[in-house]
Amino acid sequence: MVYVGIPKGQADQEEEVLKTIQDGDSDELTIKRFTESREKPGALWHIYAAKDTEKIREFLKKVAEEQGQENPVDHDPIHDQSWYLDRPLRKRLHQEYGVQGWAIVQFLGDVVFIPAGAPHQASTRDAVHNLYSCIKVAEDFVSPEHVKHCFWLTQEFRYLSHTHTNHEDKLQVKNVIYHAVKDAVGILRANESSLSRP
To answer: Per the UniProt entry, what are the Gene Ontology biological process annotations, in alphabetical order (predicted)?
Structure first.
């Protein structure tokens, strides 16, 4: 989070932000960080374990049906980012499916790492719930520990409609694997003579 802009002369907005942080199920240390140290909160994240993805997907489809919405085959309630799980929905998700996430308030200067495939809260098609005007720098990356999961996500994206924003292969996992192997083979060849000595 590289910038958080707090409007001057709007004391009531601070109370609203505090209420949002509390309603977002943030822990006491985070609330104290805002109220006592006067740090600038930029965004509220809700991040869930990747292993709970199917349960969350099933829950969102169920809620959509209850509200009379369609669930087209080539769309996905998680990748569509069309839902914001407010407190009642988060509570219901926990009660009905045993799924509970983590509430993280990102303050100015904080970095948030999201593991591959971990569903995270969507608010009006943004990745997070913004508390104030803020600017963040985001970068997708593929770590060796999560290559398998990233590849699985890429396959999942293929089943979305061709007009879906996530249809394209953003992670380029096959290219990452190819270049990693190519570099490893190049290093081994360059050091082949020193590796073969007893």
So the answer is: demethylation; methylation; regulation of transcription by RNA polymerase II
